[in-house]
Specification:
This protein has 335 residues and is of the alpha/beta class. The protein is built from 13 helices and eleven strands. The strands form three sheets. It has a seven-stranded mixed beta sheet, with helices on both faces. A two-stranded antiparallel ribbon has the order 1-2. Strands 8-9 form a two-stranded antiparallel sheet. A hairpin with a 4-residue loop joins strand 10 and strand 11. Helix 1 crosses helix 6.
């Protein structure tokens, strides 16, 4: 479920361009479990699970996610191996026991995030929003808009970033990039969920980016996942927790070309209130530097600071240090 959360929760923006028709024609690879009695697709199973979770109260969903996550953390898996590698790279000063504890907690929290997508995507969006019990830093957005400037929300894979999109769509004219996955029924479920709050979804292509530029120049708002690794040709190497990481340049580029304000956005689970705490945070001033390597390094510094607010809720399962060019080694290669 954590992988689904990563794959289907891209933030970003441009003009609406009739996505419903596109999604119906882009079926993708739809694998089936074939038998003599049933013929059920992976898509059907995932959507059924999310809709079933969507009928349950959030505290119950979290307890179920925690239980499954705890079991998952005990078993060998690619996610566990990648998490351990990332934690060791980013926290070399921590003891092995501390690193193992963070790996376990991260795996649990990632599963909880996946389970939470049930109430968020298959439930009532307004009920999900009501679970936000604290909001800090929203004045940064209002100040930027009062100046007539666009706003770019940098929302890393931290906590439940889908709630950030929901909140912004409910308060502002917000556009989000969306790249359909290989499961058409899941695509449709996500689209219907986001349409409840009038979010504008746009393609992750050149046309979408051009639309973003127009929106931001007019004082609009969008968001991106700044820690999603780009293709080698569209990123730069910049330190993340002191480790060189291929980093996307979209955020700094858009800010430079539109005079938009970069603002961090993170939404943490709050187990005390059974809700969420939403934070909007300032970004290192050097993220506006004309030198993209310096700008991306500053952006990564800010992301690292936000991660340290609640490191177990960061998705360390993501191969953040992948796709690096030579001479950097492939740290995820099995040896």
């Amino acid at each position: 479920m954590g992988r689904l959360a990563r794959r289907y929760s891209s933030l970003g923006g441009s003009d609406k361009i009739g996505y419903s028709k596109r999604f119906k024609t882009r079926l993708g690879a739809n694998k089936h479990f074939e038998g003599t009695i049933v013929n059920i697709s992976v898509d059907d199973v995932v959507v059924f699970a999310l809709k079933s979770l969507g009928k349950l109260p959030l505290p119950v969903v979290r307890r179920l996610g925690f239980a499954v996550g705890w079991l998952f953390s005990l078993l060998p898996s690619t996610a566990k191996r990648v998490t351990a590698i990332n934690v060791a790279l980013c926290f070399p000063e921590k003891s092995p026991a501390h690193q193992r504890s963070l790996v376990r907690r991260s795996l649990i929290e990632t599963v909880v995030t996946g389970f939470e997508m049930g109430p968020i995507w298959a439930g009532d969006a307004h009920k999900a929003l009501a679970r936000i019990t604290a909001i800090e830093g929203d004045e940064l957005i209002r100040e930027a808009q009062a100046q007539g400037r666009g706003v770019i929300i940098l929302a890393p894979h931290l906590g439940n970033w889908e709630m950030i999109s929901y909140y912004l769509s409910s308060r502002y004219e917000f556009a989000a990039m969306f790249q359909p996955g290989e499961h058409p029924k899941l695509n449709e479920l996500i689209l219907q969920a986001r349409e409840q709050l009038s979010a504008t979804l746009v393609p992750t292509d050149k046309r979408g980016v051009m639309g973003l530029l127009r929106r931001l120049k007019k004082g609009g708002m969008t968001g991106i996942l700044p820690d999603q690794k780009p293709e080698r040709t569209s990123g730069v190497l910049a330190p993340f927790f002191g480790v060189p990481a291929l980093t996307q340049t979209l955020g700094p580029k858009l800010a430079s070309q539109t005079n938009a304000v970069l603002i961090g956005g993170v939404c943490f689970r709050d187990y005390t209130s059974n809700g969420y705490r939403l934070f909007f945070l300032p970004v290192d001033a050097a993220a506006y530097d004309a030198d993209l390597e310096k700008a991306c390094a500053a952006m990564n510094r800010s992301i690292a600071e936000w991660v340290l607010m609640c490191p177990e809720q960061y998705q360390w399962e993501y191969k953040r240090f992948g796709r690096r060019p030579a001479p950097y080694p492939d740290v995820y290669r099995k040896r």
